[in-house]
Structures are given as C-alpha cells and as structure tokens.
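DNA replication terminus site-binding protein structure dump, as promised
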Amino acid sequence: MISDLKEQFDELKASLADLSGQLATEKPRCFFPLSDAERLIDPNPINWVNDLLSDLWYHDAEQDGRVTRCRHGLILASPATLEKITQVNESKTAFTEVARKLRNQSGQQSGGRAKNVSDTLWSEACQLLTHDGSSFRNLAKNSGMSRLHLKQCNRLIPVISEQPVSCRFSWYTNGRSIKKLSVKDVEGMLLDIGEHKTHIQVQLERLKQLPAHTPLARIQPLAPTVRANLVFENHRKAMNCPLPLFVATEDPHAPLPDIKDVPLHPPEGRTRKAREDNQISDDPIFPSLRVYTYRR
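structure tokens r here:
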C-alpha cells in the first residue's frame, strides 16, 4: 500500500509538471490577480498559477489543517492544455483513493485513534513523498518538511466547456455546514471527549433534559471563498473558485470575457443580512460540539 501511494504521488507530480510546462510554453491569455509583493518577486502570472497548482504541502508546521491556499482567476485553455488538466485530475483522483485506503488502514492499526497516527503506516508513507517538482515558493521556505496537505492534493482543477460573456467574482463569507444530529449522536460525541470532564458533565446533564426525538444541528462555519458568477449567452452559472477556472477554447490567446474582480482578502464582518427564515437557535446548546437546537 505504501508503494502504491508513492507511485500515485509520483504520477501526480509528473502530471502537474507536464501541465506547468504546457502553460509556460503556450502562455495563454489569463486573469490571475497578484499582490504587490508577488509582482516584485515575479510579475508573470502564469508562473504563479503553476506555483499554486503544484503546491501540495503545508507552508509551515503551525498551519491550520483546515486552511487551504486559494486564488481565483480565469485562464483560456487549448485542447492540449485540457488534455494535461484531465491527466492531473485523474492522477489526483487515483492518489486520493490510495491515500483514503491507507489512512483507514493506518487508523485501524493504531486502535482507531484517527487523530494521532504518527506511529502508523500513513506517517511512514509520507516520509517517502518528496518535494521534487513542488512549488518554488514552498520549496524555498520549507526544504525538508514532510507534511502533505491532502486537501490541496485532492481538489480538482476546474474546467468549464463554454466561454462566458462575463465573469463577476465575489466573496462569499457567510457559508456554513449544517449536519443534523440525534440526541443519541450528541451523547456519543460528548462521551468521546471525556465523561470525567466537568464541562462535559454539565452538557450531558443538559442533554438528559431533552426528549429523545429532539432534532439537533451541528454548525461548522466555512472559510471565506471567492465565487465566480458566470454569464453565458443563454444562461448563468455560479461556482466556487478556490483555484482559477480554465475555459475550454480553440484559441488560448483570444480576448478574455469581461471580468469584475474582488480584493485578494475577504471583507471583515458579515456582508449580508441574517436570513429571516433561519430555523436554528442563536446560541449553541452544546458549545463543545457547536450543536444547536431548532427553533419551534
């Protein structure tokens, strides 16, 4: 299984290198915003596109595992480029499947301790995965570090098959994931944290007061993301844009669609009014789990 992971990772890096070479040679028309600091380092946006796409590692040992490196953009893609992107995405899918199986096997061998697998097959496997061919900025900062960023390995490069008339980027900052839970679900999650802990005992007592059929919701705020609002001749489409969108075209040097950009960083605070039909309570009933009740 470890050799399978290394083989798939090498294939992923090779496919990314092929795509990088294709973009560097073709020099397609692209929109990829840069910061002032990035322009001073290298004003060529294609180099930064390649840097982003090939970045498979954490930037430092303290980086939050939930944080991914993102940048929106729009790039024209010739048939040759689309072929390279297809190879990258297929390699990502294959690597993701092997990594999933290995992590599951690793967790089983460590007694199910999914959050502490330093002595498992997964940790051993990661030691064999090298930075060769990874992004130049990450290599310069983190030579020798071996913390693989699975989310950045797994995410596919987005492609749209029709060129839009216009593309309006916007920050979406109020997203959240809602998972419905039962009272029994919450009880098990609290016990997993530790029944002996005082704050958990308080929440377990609170749980006992609820009817067994009470619906509950676990809320996870989502990181701000840029959305691309695309206008085509006969329809519209909106999609998240953590990576630049590649637009299929026969002429990669044709004019870009009309583009409206946003700042590189999300606005502070809430940008939209709270929904009046919100069915979830304002404050969590079980704060250790971010679990809320539904309004009656």
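Residues 125 and 138 are 21 Å apart (CA to CA).
lmk if u need the other ones
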